[in-house]
Design brief:
Blueprint: E1 2-5, H1 9-15, H2 18-27, E2 29-32, H3 40-47, E3 52-55, H4 64-67, E4 75-78, H5 89-93, E5 97-100, H6 102-121, H7 124-132, E6 145-152, H8 156-165, E7 169-175, H9 181-185, E8 190-191, H10 194-200, E9 203-206, H11 220-225, E10 230-234, H12 243-252, E11 255-260, E12 280-282, H13 291-309
Parallel strand pairs: 1-2, 1-3, 3-4, 4-5, 6-7, 6-9, 7-8, 9-10, 10-11, 11-12
């Protein structure tokens, strides 16, 4: 058997550690991409006659001419989140299975969202600025107690965020048209409509995918409907938020603050108000990017190859039908 390592050399070193490489080489012959890019001709050469392939960020579309190089290809294990950048109808039509490591990445995203929730509620960021300016106060401090936290999107990241919030005495509500109220209730969460979520929540955390239907779902009207002094956290996608409307809500004091790990575009434009508003805290899309955490992606891909060989269920399989509703 052969495993094609389609990851470019830089990303390979980020997600495949020596231990995982040894486990993969014990399964099959490994074929490597020794370049720092994913040019189609390079991908063809590495993929030739492979039974399995591991991909990651930057993989090109796996079109028919590329797939023709590997007629026995059974599985593509993606050491990253979204598979939309490379999957094609031809791939699915050939019966090739696809698994994503989105759930693995989502752990870091959920934990980052919780960290931002605590830090913004406690007013860490603004009080730090005040101290740097010579001040000292205890204004704007809120405990995670007897407040309502709204989760927009109840996929891997939103669900795990809800699990983490069970350690606190808060009411958790969520919106996701694709998840039942019964499933949410299993995690102590009440399902509500989106407008109700924005009206009721003291803190709103975004975990929805980037889809045409979610573009600017956080618009001026929903921001205006929020409680005075509410907090918005976005670790999902920048396109979910109308950033001009958000800037206006922050300037007016309608919102206490916003914590954004994602923006649209990334990085924000040089003249974006998000860079200068004192109550807007921006991080460089780091939620799922811890260097040691990325090594879990390669291990997850190895496990899925083993699962397929042994006839066990795949973890994180992405079917063709799922593409219209996931990130």
């Amino acid at each position: 058997m052969k495993i094609a390592m389609l990851l470019d050399k830089i990303i390979y070193n980020q997600v495949i550690n020596p231990k995982t490489e040894k486990k993969l080489s014990d399964l099959a012959v490994l074929s490597f991409n020794e370049t720092r890019e994913n040019a189609p001709e390079t991908v063809k050469a590495v993929l030739r006659d492979a039974d399995f392939a591991i991909t990651s960020w930057g993989c090109p579309k796996l079109t028919a001419d590329i797939l023709d190089e590997a007629p026995n290809l059974r599985l593509i294990a993606h050491a990253a989140g979204s598979v939309k950048g490379f999957v094609t109808d031809e791939l699915y039509d050939r019966g090739i299975k696809v698994v994503s490591s989105a759930k693995i990445l989502s752990t870091g995203v959920s934990e980052t969202a919780l960290g931002l929730t605590i830090a913004s509620a406690k007013n860490f960021f603004l009080l730090n600025d005040e101290i740097r300016s010579g001040g000292w106060s205890h204004t704007g401090i809120t405990e995670l107690y007897d407040i309502t936290i709204g989760i927009v999107g109840f996929g891997f990241a939103g669900l795990h965020y809800a699990e983490l919030l069970r350690a606190f005495e808060v009411e958790v509500i969520a919106y996701d048209p694709g998840v039942s109220a019964e499933k949410m209730a299993q995690y102590g969460v009440k399902k509500v409509e989106l407008d109700e979520l924005f009206r009721r929540s003291h803190i709103v955390s975004l975990h929805a995918p980037e889809l045409p239907s979610t573009y600017h779902m956080v618009d001026a009207a929903r921001l205006d409907s929020m409680r005075d002094g509410a907090i918005l956290i976005n670790t999902a996608r920048g396109s979910l938020v109308d950033e001009d409307a958000l800037a206006a809500a922050l300037r007016s004091g309608k919102l206490k603050c916003a914590c954004l790990d994602v923006t649209n575009p990334e990085p924000p434009a040089a003249d974006s108000p998000l860079r200068s508003l004192p109550n807007c805290f921006v991080t460089p899309h780091l939620a799922g990017q811890a260097s040691n955490g990325l090594m879990r992606l390669g291990d997850h891909c190895h496990r899925q190859i083993v699962n397929l060989i042994e006839g066990k269920p795949l973890e994180g399989e992405v079917t063709k039908e799922m593409l219209s509703t996931i990130a």
